[in-house]
């Protein structure tokens, strides 16, 4: 029997398949007599397969607009009824996308709609269109959102204004000067929601790539004895800490040179092929007469044609007692990703403690 080859199942099909489009049509038909279901399905499905995930969001939003022959305000009212009926958070993002595409002329209605829609998925991509059109006016609304009772709305205030939000365009004015978002971040520095705190940390980490001194100065004034704030700051400074930035390490209490000895360092097996797993192991012994904060990481120098590139991986942050001895181990499978292709050759592995390289080992990746 001949085996039938099927195309691989992709993320875009998992999140936004033809069945998802049919679900939108069925639920919208239930709340809007004016909705032209046949036209929507015909036009939405005709080119869906050829589109990327983000293109599908825009395409379906455009087809919604064509199949709802009513005013913008009326359409938004209908889509508000639709939002709680949808069965997938990503699919609900067609609704804020509709606002981004067709709501520029009615700022107040659009801001209220985004505040509502974000509770069902996220309006982080849509609000950026308004930030690009009028940064000051939109940030003024988002500052109010940062004090909202709903964690989804508070998160939108931070996530939507990130200067380098993945899967979206950059907000160049905020890359040049992050000061306009300072009050939003300050309002969220002790937020009780981990969902919000993750966004604040990622937002600050974005800023460290262009203005590390601005971030360090700001977080030094935050209540670092608050566990919620200290969590944000540790994650916000992760890129600087991976680089061994002394000021960033000092903020989290690990600015001093580590008083430790490294031993038993090994990478096994030391000869592998693509798809194999290596195990990095070593021990640290304190040589200090007092407790010390340690940030323990490791770096892999990946072989590239004619050069190597270094990537730092987080391992553990701990407080080590005087004279203490601790073992560390980390397994890593060496496989290709869309963002990383491996090449044969000797890969150096470094152990870093408080930003300093304490030892090196290596493994050979065979062709």
Task: Outline the structure in words.
The chain has 2 domains: 11-251, ARM repeat domains (Serine Threonine Protein Phosphatase 5, Tetratricopeptide repeat); 260-365, Sandwich (Immunoglobulin-like). Helices cover 43% and strands 21% of the residues. The chain is built from 17 helices and 8 strands. The chain has a 5-stranded mixed β-sheet with strand order 2-8-7-4-5, with no helix packed on it. Strands 1-3-6 form a 3-stranded antiparallel β-sheet, with no helix packed on it. α3 packs antiparallel against α4. The protein is globular. Mean pLDDT is 95; it is low at 1-8.
What attributes characterize this protein structure?
single chain; 3-stranded antiparallel β-sheet; 5-stranded mixed β-sheet; 2 domains; Serine Threonine Protein Phosphatase 5, Tetratricopeptide repeat; alpha+beta; 17 helices; Immunoglobulin-like; 43% helix
What is the level 1 CATH name of the largest domain?
Mainly Alpha
Strand order, main sheet: write it out.
2-8-7-4-5
The tally of strands reads 8
CATH hierarchy: architecture of the largest domain: Alpha Horseshoe
Q: What's the number of structural domains?
A: 2
- The CATH superfamily label of the largest domain reads ARM repeat domains
**Biggest sheet record:** 5 strands, mixed
Structural shape? globular
Radius of gyration: 25 Å
Brief characterization of the structure:
With 367 residues, this protein is an alpha+beta fold.
């Amino acid at each position: 029997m001949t085996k039938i080859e099927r195309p691989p199942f992709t993320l875009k099909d998992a999140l936004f398949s033809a069945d998802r489009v049919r679900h939108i049509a069925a639920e919208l038909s239930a709340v809007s007599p004016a909705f032209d279901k046949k036209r929507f399905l015909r036009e939405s499905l005709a080119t869906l397969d050829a589109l990327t995930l983000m293109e599908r969001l825009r395409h379906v939003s455009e087809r919604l607009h064509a199949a709802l022959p009513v005013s913008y305000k009326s359409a938004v009212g209908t889509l508000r009824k639709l939002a709680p009926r949808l069965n997938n958070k990503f699919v609900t993002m067609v609704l804020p996308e509709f606002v981004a595409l067709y709501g520029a002329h009615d700022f107040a209605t659009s801001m209220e709609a985004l505040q509502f829609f974000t509770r069902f998925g996220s309006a982080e991509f849509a609000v950026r269109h308004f930030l690009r059109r009028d940064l000051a006016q939109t940030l003024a609304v988002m500052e109010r959102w940062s004090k909202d009772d709903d964690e989804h709305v508070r998160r939108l205030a931070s996530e939507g204004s990130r200067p380098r939000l993945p899967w979206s365009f950059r907000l160049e004015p905020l890359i040049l000067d992050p000061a306009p978002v300072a009050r939003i971040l300050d309002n969220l520095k002790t937020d009780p929601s981990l969902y919000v705190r993750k966004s604040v940390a990622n937002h600050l980490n974005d800023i460290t790539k262009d203005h590390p001194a601005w971030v360090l100065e700001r977080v030094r004034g935050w209540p670092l004895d608050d566990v919620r704030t200290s969590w944000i700051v540790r994650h916000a400074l992760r890129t600087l800490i991976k680089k061994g930035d002394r000021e960033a390490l000092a903020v989290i209490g690990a600015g001093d040179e580590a008083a430790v000895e490294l031993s038993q360092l090994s990478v096994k097996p030391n000869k592998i092929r693509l798809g194999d797993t290596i195990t990095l192991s070593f021990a640290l012994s304190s040589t200090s007469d007092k407790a010390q904060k340690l940030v323990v990481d490791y770096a892999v120098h990946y072989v590239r044609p004619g050069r190597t590139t270094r990537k730092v991986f987080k391992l553990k942050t701990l407080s080590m007692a005087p004279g203490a001895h601790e073992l560390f181990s980390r397994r890593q499978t060496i496989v290709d990703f869309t963002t990383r292709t491996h090449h044969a050759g000797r890969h150096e592995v470094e152990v870093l403690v408080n930003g300093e390289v304490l030892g090196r080992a290596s493994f050979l990746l065979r062709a």
